[in-house]
Every structure is written in structure tokens, then in C-alpha cells.
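Hallway conversation turned thread

IA: we were arguing at lunch whether anyone had actually written out Globin end to end. Turns out nobody had. So, for the record, here is the sequence (170 residues) and right after it the C-alpha cells. Reply here if something looks off.
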Amino acid sequence: MEPSNNIPTPCEWAGGVEKFEQLTDAFYKKVLTDPVLEPVFRHMPAEHSKHVAHFMAEVLMGPKVYSAEYGDNALRHMVGKHIGKKLKEEQRKRWAQLLLETADEIGLPDDPEFRSTFVAHIEWGTRVAVINSQLEENPTTSEEQIPEWGWGEVKGPYEVVGSLFQKKKE
Ligand code: HEM
């Protein structure tokens, strides 16, 4: 989606699709050395990390690269990858914690507004992944689109004016 009123999308603010590719590349390398997560991801294909980056960037209102790769079935395909995996809360928690640690290491923006938006998506997405992973059949239809995650209630990004945080001028 194009930015409106000069406010960048969360994806743009983060540094674009390439920044998410950098994030997931570093993240899945760590995953393979983690005792809780390695068994879950042992057989992931080489392209997995790029696909997750493209999905995240698209959710955060970036270019529709994941949709372009999978067409009308993009969301159904993504949900389908979690069906039947029987993920546990311990694995979800480690996944989220490791991702956020990696975000700091690769220098994903750490301003309160971006991180609030990003963490909100991660909290929501990881919990949905665990719920879907208990199912045996994919409930998603081809009509359902990948969700969009905007700036939300924090209405960011903000800039510091004097000692105050104020909404960026439009
Ligand atoms: C915000 C949270 C999450 C997002 C955005 C996400 C995204 C994705 C995407 C896009 C795929 C499909 C990749 C493709 O198209 O090839 C996928 C697959 C998968 N995800 Fe997730 N995921 C999330 C959470 C989790 C969690 C918490 C776990 C486990 C702890 C998990 C485990 C898996 C597994 C095992 C696959 C299949 C990998 C394979 O192809 O072998 N996901 N995920």
C-alpha cells in the first residue's frame, strides 16, 4: 500500500522488505541452534526464511510480494503450513522471544511506536499459529486475504519536539 499523508507504512519505517529478509535470515539461523525450536524447523526448506519475511512485510503494509508468489491462495497456503503441527506454548514463546532478540541485533527500528506495532503483530500471529496448529484441516478459504497491520492505536510514528513526543507533522 502507498503511504498516505507522508506517514510511512510500518514496513517502510522498518527498512522495507530487505530488512525483514535480514531479520528472518538471522532468526532462522538461531532457531536451528535452539533446543526448543530446532525439532520444529529441522526440515524447513531453504526458502522458508524469505517466505516468512515476505509475509511479515506484506502484513505490515509493505509490497504484496507473498501474495504475488502464492496468488489467491496466499493466506490459505500460509495457514496450511501450521495445520497439524501441534505447536506448544513453550515453542511459541521461544519463537517470539528469539525473533525480538534478533530484531535488536540487526537494528530493526526500536522506537516505541514501531515496536508496539511489530510486537502486536507477533503476539497475535504466534498465538493464531498455535491455535491453527492444533487443527487437522485448514479452515481458511481462498477468498480470505492476508491481514494488514497498520500503526494502530499508538497512531505513530512520533517525533521528539522539545521534551515531548508528538505526532509527526503531515
Ligand atoms: C507472527 C507469527 C508467524 C508468522 C508470520 C509465520 C509465518 C509463516 C509463513 C509465511 C510460513 C509459510 C512459509 C512458506 O510459504 O513456505 C510458515 C510456516 C511455518 N511456520 Fe510459521 N509463522 C508464525 C509463527 C510460527 C510459530 C510460533 C511457529 C512455531 C513455533 C511456526 C512454525 C512454522 C512451521 C513449522 C512452518 C512450516 C515450515 C516448513 O515448510 O517446513 N510459525 N510460517
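OS: looked through it. Residues 40-41, 43-45, 48, 51-52, 55-56, 77-78, 81-82, 85, 87, 91-92, 95, 122, 125-126, 129 surround protoporphyrin IX containing FE (CB under 6 Å).
IA: good, adding that to the notes. The longest helix spans residues 112-133.
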